[in-house]
Amino acid sequence: MDIKKDVQKQFGRSADEYVKSSGHRKGEDLKKLVEIARVTGHEHVLDVATGGGHTANAFAPLVNKVTAVDLTPEMLTAAEKFIKGNGHANVAFVEGDAEKLPFPNDMFDIVTCRIAPHHFPNVQQFVNEVHRVLKANSQFLLDDNVAPEVNEYDQFYNRIEKIRDYSHFRAWKKTEWINMLEHAGFEIQELYRFEKRFEFNSWCDRMKMSQSDKEALNEYIVNSNQEVKNKFRITIQQNKVESFLGEAVLLKAIKS
User: Fold this and answer.
1) Is the pLDDT of residue 21 over 60?
2) How far apart (Å, rounded) are the C-alpha atoms in residues 123 and 96?
3) CA-CA 20 to 30 A from 140: which of 134, 157, 185, 222?
4) Which of 130, 52, 49, 44 lies closest to 91, judged by CA?
5) How many whole angstroms separate alpha carbon 3 and alpha carbon 166?
6) Which residues of 219-233 are buried (b: 16+ CB within 10 A; e: fewer)?
7) pLDDT tens-digit map of 147-157
């Protein structure tokens, strides 16, 4: 699909920036994700759409083995350099599609996916694939940016993400995630919400936006209505967007 080629193109040229990104590297959500997994040390973890490898890197010293899968070869190369540079030798790197995972049924003790599903064109198929490769009674740890429940705010957030990053498909609502997971046969045990402050310049620059596209996005946000500005806590100085507030959810779900 074209969206998957877009993902490979976009992240192929931004791989190193994602390894260095503080939001991906230091987020409180990552600490919480590892905490709620409650590992014993014997697990085989699958990290889907590993990106810069931060989740795989966090689990590597705590479990028996991690398999990091990503659609984009350049991201895998950057993740491998990062993780091996931290001294972890128990991580395997596999090129693969989140919606068609190249693994047999009932293989993994834990599946993680962090800050990635908003790029997947068929997210229900992704959830079904996670269910397939997990062992019975094992856990899926899902962490992603989400859209607000109010349609106007949902449309605004997804629009600015799409302008910034053409490989963005959709950030889903919290209720949509719950619906998809339960329909796939998961039971949700824990849910956490995180506020995320996006600094406009670094948020745009990570996607290597042209100056003209960046200015157009700035203008779109500046011209949004006051309700939208209030909802997203948008800060503007001298007609320049400085930052805005988004949100993410972390879900722990068990394969029934």
Assistant:
1) no
2) 15
3) 157
4) 44
5) 8
6) eebeebeeebeebbe
7) 999 999 999 99
